[in-house]
């Protein structure tokens, strides 16, 4: 018996090490392109035009980042992305939380049918409705406005589904106890239940923020004025002939600069994602 237990422990240890080695290998594969982009951003454009392999050899320079600071539209694009991503995230959190609470806690005619119709939104690609949406926003004169960039993303069927399931997981006895203290429906939602859904809200908010930050399709269609470009559209507009017009190093410096806010978001909110995933697993 002791021999079997020892061999089993050795087998598990070997399996854990194998998984760890595979994880490290995959992490290296994912990190290499990012390190390569950082390296390209630290080389002069003239060197990269001759040989991109020069990224592996000194000297390196910050001239591309200096050029961004003194003469680039990236700060305007960065501001637009921050406004659009933050506004869209807040809108999704508010609407999804209210809808999730309604579907999970309230009884009203056609609730299940409406919920199914909302979930149908997960199966409809954005490209399928782009013409109708473009015409609608054009009639409302919302193109090249922050509202026009944010409003489509606030329709979030996944957010409604996530918050509905999270509210359903909260025992109804909590609502009943609050009602005994003469709490209104809104007070129960705002003061009692909503704070209990913070992990789910943090996860939804981060995913929405990242989706809005990296979105290219709708900002390209709606934000045709250069002053309303988001980072994705603005950086893409500088890419011509393999970025030879602006310089590959300059382009990579813009990409690195644009990724910093996303990195900050991950650093501050990663624990909420882990908590939400572990809560769902249990």
UniProtKB/TrEMBL annotation:
Positions of the ABC transmembrane type-1 domain: 78-269
CC terms in the record's Gene Ontology section: plasma membrane
GO biological process terms on file: transmembrane transport
Keyword Chaperone part of the UniProt annotation: no
Stated role: Part of the ABC transporter complex UgpBAEC involved in sn-glycerol-3-phosphate (G3P) import. Probably responsible for the translocation of the substrate across the membrane.
Subunit structure: The complex is composed of two ATP-binding proteins (UgpC), two transmembrane proteins (UgpA and UgpE) and a solute-binding protein (UgpB).
Record's keyword annotation contains Membrane: yes
Taxonomic source organism: Steroidobacter agaridevorans
Descriptive protein name: sn-glycerol-3-phosphate transport system permease protein UgpE
Gene3D superfamilies: MetI-like
Principal location listed in the UniProt entry: membrane
SUPFAM superfamilies in alphabetical order: MetI-like (SSF161098)
Protein family (similarity comment): Belongs to the binding-protein-dependent transport system permease family.
Gene: ugpE
């Amino acid at each position: 018996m002791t021999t079997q237990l020892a061999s089993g422990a050795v087998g598990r240890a070997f399996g854990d090490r194998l998984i760890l080695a595979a994880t490290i290998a995959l992490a290296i594969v994912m990190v290499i392109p990012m390190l390569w982009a950082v390296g390209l951003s630290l080389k002069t454009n003239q060197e990269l035009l001759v040989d991109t392999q020069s990224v592996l050899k000194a000297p390196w320079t910050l001239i591309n980042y200096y050029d961004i600071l003194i003469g680039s539209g990236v700060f305007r694009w960065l501001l637009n992305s921050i406004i659009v991503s933050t506004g869209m995230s807040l809108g999704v959190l508010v609407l999804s939380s209210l809808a999730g609470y309604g579907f999970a806690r309230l009884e009203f005619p056609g609730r299940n049918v409406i919920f199914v119709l909302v979930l149908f939104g997960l199966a409809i690609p954005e490209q399928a409705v782009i013409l109708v949406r473009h015409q609608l926003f054009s009639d409302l004169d919302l193109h090249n406005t922050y509202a026009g960039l944010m409003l489509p993303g606030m329709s979030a069927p996944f957010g409604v589904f996530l918050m509905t399931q999270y509210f359903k997981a909260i025992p109804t006895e909590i609502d009943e106890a609050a009602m005994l203290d003469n709490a209104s429906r809104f007070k129960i939602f705002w003061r009692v239940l909503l704070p209990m859904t913070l992990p789910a809200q943090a996860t939804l908010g981060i995913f929405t923020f990242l989706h809005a930050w990296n979105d290219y399709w709708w900002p390209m269609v709606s934000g045709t004025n250069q002053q309303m470009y988001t980072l994705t559209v603005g950086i893409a507009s500088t890419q011509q002939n393999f970025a030879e017009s602006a310089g590959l190093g300059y382009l990579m410096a813009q990409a690195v600069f644009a990724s910093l806010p996303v990195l900050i978001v991950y650093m501050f909110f990663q624990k909420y994602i882990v908590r939400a995933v572990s809560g769902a697993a249990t």
